[in-house]
UniProtKB/TrEMBL annotation, chain A:
Domain Cobalamin-independent methionine synthase MetE C-terminal/archaeal: from-to ranges: 26-332
Gene3D superfamilies membership: 3.20.20.210
Name of this chain's protein: Methionine synthase
Pfam families registered for this protein in UniProt: Meth_synt_2 (PF01717)
Keyword Zinc: yes
Cofactor(s) this protein requires: Zn(2+)
Alphabetized UniProt keyword annotations: Metal-binding, Zinc
Biological classification of the source: Archaea, Methanobacteriati, Thermoplasmatota, Thermoplasmata, Thermoplasmatales
GO molecular function annotation: 5-methyltetrahydropteroyltriglutamate-homocysteine S-methyltransferase activity; zinc ion binding
Listed PANTHER family: 5-METHYLTETRAHYDROPTEROYLTRIGLUTAMATE--HOMOCYSTEINE METHYLTRANSFERASE
Keyword Zinc in record: yes
UniProtKB/TrEMBL annotation, chain B:
Protein species of origin: Acidiplasma aeolicum
Source lineage: Archaea, Methanobacteriati, Thermoplasmatota, Thermoplasmata, Thermoplasmatales
Protein name, per record: Uncharacterized protein
InterPro entries, per database record: UROD/MetE-like_sf
Amino acid sequence: MSEKYLISQEIGSFRKPTYLSSVFHKIQGTEEFNVLAGRATIETIDLFKKAGLDNIGVGGEMFRWEMYEHQANRINGITFYGPVRSFDNRYYKKGSITDRIERKEPYHLDELEFLLENNISNIKIPVTGPYTMMDWSFNEHYRDRYETAMEFAKLLNEDMRELKREWDRKYPGKKLEIQIDEPATTTHPDEMNIVVDSINKSVDGIDNVEFSMHVCYSIDYRLLYDVMDDIKIDGFNLEFANRDTLERGTDDSSRPGYTDLKYFNEHNDKKKFMGLGVTDVHIDYIEPVELIKDRINYALKILPPELIRLNPDCGLRTRTREIGYEKLKNMDIARQEILKEIR
Amino acid sequence: MKINTLVYGIYPKTNELRLSISRWEKGLLPDAALNDRIDDEKHEFYDRLNNNEILYTDPLFNWYDIFRPLVLITDGMQPGPLTRYKETNTFYRMPEVSEIGGIKYSPDKFTPLNENPPLPLYAEYGKDFNAFLPSPYTFFKMSRVEMAYNDFEKQLLNNYVQILKKFRTRNVILFDSLPYEKNSVLNLEDFVKEYNVRLITAGNIYKENIRGRPKSIICDNNENNVKIASEISDEPGIKLIDGYNTKLEKPEDIRNEALKYDLDSIIITHTEYFDFLPRMIADKKIEIMSKIGD
């Protein structure tokens, strides 16, 4: 049985060490920032390796504060007027498009350069997708949402081409993995055409890259599965554990969070892979190995092992580093035991 | 034509107030101190709106969402999972309603709450004050309810009467965030006999949707809506200020749009409560609104 079955991976963010988070905004853009973000990246990668992950993402996104803001800050034409409520007393910065948008600096090149300098190659670079960038921005400039998303797609295409060029310098011929984060996908069910067209424009003409798409907390993944054949990507990394029970078992009633996999499988004509969220990032409860195994075994009744990858539901920055590690560790133990059982 | 303007619902907070609430959440600011801070900011808001001759509700700085404090003070209700508010990136706790019992805490008195800043619901009292309350239709649709709609509506409106009595006002803005279906019925027959109801609707409205004659029906801007609103209420209103976008409207454009209708008077308001905008933009939109009315 190939070790390429049930590949385990990080999904994106991980809690920053206090020495970085406490000064992040004060020192961003300075040499001190690069030193501390680099140190935090290496420490986090070590933690991921210890937990047994096959793919370490970019080491927990230590160079980024937040997925929307990170990119929006690097785009001309976006103005920030102030924070907007997310929930309760939590707020996020939502930019306004006040002029034609263009990249003023690369989004993630510094992060990639750091990883390459340190000879780290089992990576997957998360980038925020064009539909989410559009949906999370106010638009004062473009005609409509379609046009806005396509403009963001154009910028992302430029950025990913740069990432690929940098990668090829170090690892010519080796496939680069990029994960397009699109949490806003399916929030407007009648706009799936915008999702499809804008992602396709983002990846247009970029070869020898494995593209995946991360979506979480969707109201209905079936909206995505209905159009997945039209999206020019290789697979998905989705949240499932959050909508599942904590009960043991591999039948439908024990695993309500994963039953949509049947619909995915029925529509998966192009055999795209599914990154299965097997641990919930919004609870401190550390899912036992046996529960994670039940989730994986349920999925294995529907999909072949070569199409299943394993990941947390979403970025683990919502949890402490200790709890995040324990969740990843149990995910790896469950994976190893199942691989043995399959053999 | 007489043009009135209305600002309703949760208004975005200042950075200072957000920081105060953050300190309160961490246990660093006592309930009473936070209450004083909120009260001060509410009164600054009242003064500003009064000076601009804009109708307004309480800015609800102490409401985490448009249901939360009502849920927390009502027997039989509890806050449920975080849920996306319509198609926005803002979340509310979906009310879970097994039954609608009585009101547990006096809504007009300072009272600490779990999972929400302290009561009172509103900082203002009296005959000129407009209370803000979610309409039973929207409340039901955006909750998980184990009751038939008719029972829910009747008992919720009974509780609303109790709340309004405490604040000694007869003026209430009922807010419907979701559009009616053709066969939806919001039965306000008894309620409008006692209260001056301004009902904010969404989407297309049908005459049969509303029973009872509210003082005002405020609707999305289209001719058919305005025609119905003018027939079944005393003063129609339209939503012309964009509550979802930072782009600033021109007062003369808004005024000209209102003047297209052949009416004695009209209310101009915003498409959504301003909590989805940065505070600075909401303040600018108020300035614009102050230049629209007579």
